[in-house]
Amino acid sequence: MIQITDLEKFYRTEEVQTIALNKLSFEVKQGEFVAIMGPSGCGKSTLLNILGLLDDPDGGSFKFNGEEVAGYNERKRSDLRKHNVGFVFQSFNLIDELTVFENVELPLIYTGVKPAERKKRVEEVLEKMQIMHRRNHFPQQLSGGQQQRVAVARAVVNNPKLILADEPTGNLDSTNGNEVMDLLIDLNEAGTTIIMVTHSEHDAKYSHRIIRMLDGQKVTENILA
Amino acid sequence: MIKNYFKIAWRNIMKHKVFSLINVIGLTIGLSASFVIGLMIYYDYTFDDFHKDGDRIYRVVSDFKSPQGTFHNSGVTLALKDAIADNSNFESITEFYINRPSKVENKANNTEFKWPNFVMYTDEAYFNIFDYKFIAGDKSTALDKPNNVILTETRAKEYFPNTAPADLIGKTLVYNDSINITVSGVVENFKKRTDFVFEEFISHQTLLQTDRREELLERQWGNTNSDSQLFVKLTESANVVSIQKRLDDLALEHTDEDDKKYEMSREFQLQPLSDIHFNEDYGIYDWSKGQASKSLLSNLALVAVFLLLLGCINFINLNTAQASQRAKEIGIRKTLGSSRKQLISQFMGETFLLVFFSALLSIVLSKWLINVFSDFVPEDLSFELFKAPLIVLSILLLLFVVTILSGFYPALVLSKFNTVSVLKNHMAAGEKKVRLRKFLTVFQFTIAQIFIIGTLLVGKQINYLLNKDMGFKTDAIVSVYSPRSERELSKKELYAEKLRSIPEIKSVSIGSHAPASYSTNTTNVTYTNEEEIIKSEMQYIFGDTNYANLFELDILAGRIHRNDTVRELVINETLLKKLGFNSPDDAIGKALTVNDEQTPIVGVMADFNQRSLKSEIKPMALRGDWYRSQFSQFQAIHVSFHNESSENLKSTLTKIEDAYKSVYTETEDYRLQFMDQTIETFYNREKKISKLLNWATGLSILISCLGLLGLVIYTTNRRVKEIGVRKVLGASLFQINTLLCKEFLLLVAIAFVIATPLAWYGIYSWLQDFTYKTSISFIAFIVGGAAMIFFALLVISFKTLSAANANPVNSLRSE
Predict the structure, then answer these.
(1) Where are the domains of chain B?
(2) For B252-308, what is each residue's pLDDT tens digit?
(3) Which of B116, B220, B18 is nearest to B706 (CA)?
(4) Could you tell me if A107 lies within 8 Å of chain B, comparing CB atoms?
(5) Nearest to B33 by CA among B289, B278, B293, B310
(6) A58 touching B (Cβ < 8 Å)
(7) Which superfamily does A29-57+73-223 belong to?
(8) Does the model's ipTM exceed the 0.90 cut?
(9) Nearest to B727 by CA among B797, B813, B795, B811
(10) Cβ contact (<8 Å) for B337 and A98?
(11) How many CB pairs under 8 A join A and B?
């Protein structure tokens, strides 16, 4: 599904150039659950942003479903992203001004789903995430765990092929963290590919494969199952 | 999607209540001003736009040119109509004569109507040019005989109450006690806005039975009366240039020898129908309504544009300043697949919502504003105009433009955010955006400063005009005019005698108008000395032997005329100089040729202003009432008081009116004018400008300061941690306040530097209209600048002091 070869990303300031990704290569197959680990600043989040088509690489190749997407313009990336990729962030990134229902509904609006169908699908996913009773609440009225469940609901409501999770349990206590990980496992078992960036060895163990990075390069790769 | 946009827009508005309020207030003020001013423009520009083929209808008017300038007259000589009658460029030509009868009687029910207004003598062609709807009578025959009249529905109801229009045909009215006139038609009044306010149309031949008979029969080229109006309707293929050429030729052919001698000439002009409502040179028919002024309307429009711009600037500044608060939402939306176009639409939608809300408020506010600006707003301008399709369309267009102006740049800025950066919370205020905000703030304060300085200096000039010595006594003087129909001098003398017996009255004089008035009576004079012949125009004022004394005119040499009928002149200094005399004494005993007769100069009076101080002093002479046996020029009785305390004055005025009633029977024509009030009316337009400027200044300060407040709140909130740290490190309240204020006060100071030359130039140009002008005092600039800094400081300190006073523990803990 994902194939990256010699991927490069640099950050430049006026005087210094920092290498965030240094000729990184790996592949992720359809239905896999991959965890990416490494110390702060090793390039994990940069990688995730590129995989999520939020950022452009400076060099190398990035194939999504066999198609070269490095160098796509913003409109094409946006189009590909909204139909194929769901995001779960450490800090949930819900829109404070929208209710739970409206937050989950948002990706469907951008993919042009009709209102009746939207309502049905949002309700289904909220039921599945056991957050239906909070549908009219605003994010500030929810606990961290509940907020992350809403974020997961939002990530999956469009049935994306790929979910990118950036420290999904980073802001949660262990009970809520485990619940979120269980949700991701369920999704993965249902066929969704998941790439998760994490600092937590505990969370990484839920995955099939752990890629460890340092200074923008892959250092090890452990297959768990 | 749209619903989602509006939902989030509404929630955002509610979440940032203070900023939303600032935006709404700014936009509401700008929009209200635009609505009211827009209505006024629409009102004035839709006068007489309903006449069929209105673009082919013209009034022919006369311009008289002389070395002294151009004099305009809305009338033409009666001879012109015959001279152009066979010109194929005209589809119709009509002449009408405006004349107000002193009395109209309906003998059938014994009612009489004094001085009915808007009466004209005309012919069928008038109704071919102007499309009146006939309710009774036949258009083609109604005016073909003498002694016929067509009445409007309104006038018919006055003269013949409770009578159906059809039953009015054949009824008789008696005009001026002697002329029997039969009603031959009734027309509907024009339903739309019009300057053609006429109510009675008498057949043109009837004029032969009035004192205009001679004039009508002779139809002399040299005689022009503003009551004689000529209208033409051109054919579709008419050539305006060739018509004008023909009119020019006719004017040239019929130039009087005397006019040539004095280098005077006449021109006929075609005045388009659409110009009549605006052109003050030729005027409209209902003077009480006041003429619309294109320059006033454009000044008003400019004020509206500035106020709207200030509102839009607040919006841009506050929204770009707050952008970082929306960053997260933008990042998420982009992540979830929103395109930049969709984001721009979303933010434009939000802007539109706010603009729309402001527009609703503005419509309500406009009703109130129409009252506040009653000096500018015509009486019959109604709120109903808001329903006019063009107005609705214009409002929608305006909302669209304001939405684009206010919302597009912030939308562009917000939608440009880099998704990755904003989600990582790596937001930095771009230097460019900060610079733009500073620039816009400077722009706002520049406008506000110009308004402040303008207000101060216009006020100073008006004060100067009202208080400058006119050269004669202006306070504690009233003028009472005798009835218009009253020609007899004996009654005036009787009235003057009665007034002299009132003990509170100091002095009484019979004469024409007061030394300064709207009326002029001008003639040409020649003075022949040993070397040359000097020609000049000369204005007259007519007064009895007490006139100069009452108005305290300063006699520099000689004396005033010996009595009211002797042919003698008291000339002013301007004429003295024009005629080449070196000193007042030199002129005494010399004679001027006036109307081919030698007239001696017996006195020289000091110059005084005959009109407003906008105009120069003209050559003038005071004289008596030489031709009183044929036509008396004495129309008014001037009265000065011993003292003008308000209680005394009230009872004296009652006595003056009682004396009037005991002499004259036409008591409804009682006209009394205070000299100082007449002088004030010279400056009505300036006072209007001053009032407008006061409002514009107040509102521009309000909008600009609100915008500044918004920026200060935002900046202070962002610097809360810095303030906390500084306080912990020992900064005083004053030091912190200075730190926070410095940046904003600098902007106000820059605005002052920019505004000063602009305001100076504006005021300098405006003052060029006045012959007598106040100095452009630098104090006004300093006061203006200080006032602006004071207001700005007040607004800034309101927030910064509370921020500087806050306990630093709170701000540091929240980190």
Answers:
(1) 1-47+299-432, 54-276, 441-468+683-815, 484-668
(2) 988 877 777 777 788 999 999 999 999 888 888 887 776 788 887 888 888 889 889
(3) B18
(4) yes
(5) B310
(6) no
(7) P-loop containing nucleotide triphosphate hydrolases (3.40.50.300)
(8) no
(9) B811
(10) no
(11) 64
